[in-house]
Amino acid sequence: MAKILIIDDEESLRDNMTAFLEDEGHRVLATHCAEAGLQKLAQFQPDLVIVDLRLEGASGERFVKTAYSLQPTTCYIIHTGSKEYTLPRSLEMLGISDRNLLYKPIPDLLQLSNLINELLAEHTETLKRHQS
After folding, report:
1. Which region holds residue 51: left if phi is over 0, alpha if psi is between -120 and 50, else beta?
2. In this structure, are residues 47 and 75 in contact, taking their beta carbons and an 8 Å threshold?
3. Fewer C-beta neighbours within 10 Å, C or N terminus of the chain?
4. Can you give the pLDDT at residue 125?
5. Counting beta carbons within 10 angstroms of the beta carbon of residue 42, is it exposed (0 to 12), middle (13 to 18) or buried (19 or more)?
6. Rounded CA separation 132/123 (Å)
7. How far is CA 101 from CA 53, 83, 84, 116, 125, in A?
8. Max CA-CA distance within the chain?
9. 34, 78 in Cβ contact below 8 A?
């Protein structure tokens, strides 16, 4: 399955998502802030990152912009409790759409699992087309 990095300052949320995604067969690393997330990004080389917007230090948006410049083939899911949040143009230009946006709390973690599987399948197809 996939390697997934979770960046969220809520420990219980990180723990719950990690346990669920590991049960789904994924390899998961989790951390509480963007700075540690960038270090783990380089070491772990995840296929997908789930990132909260409001983090200690750098914001989730800043993390995604920096991470994308380092690893443009990684998929991103923005996870936020801010219901009025809309994606800025700078993230849309990186290929992130409303589809990559999940609002807290996720009522059913199967929604997260399905989104991960869909994004990774589409991403794999896109990479295959570019390699052909």
Report:
1. beta
2. yes
3. C
4. 83
5. exposed
6. 14
7. 10, 10, 12, 11, 21
8. 43
9. no
Cβ-proximal residues to 28 (8 Å cutoff; 6+ apart), any chain: 3, 4, 5, 6, 17, 18, 21, 22
Q: Which residue has the tokens 């801010």?
A: 82
Q: Which residues contact 31 (CB under 8 A, 6 or more apart)?
A: 5, 6, 7, 14, 37, 40
Specify the residue for token string 């909260």. 52
* CB 90, CB 65: distance < 8 Å: yes
Q: Which residue has the tokens 């994004």?
A: 119
pLDDT tens-digit series, residues 101-129:
999 989 899 999 999 999 999 888 876 77
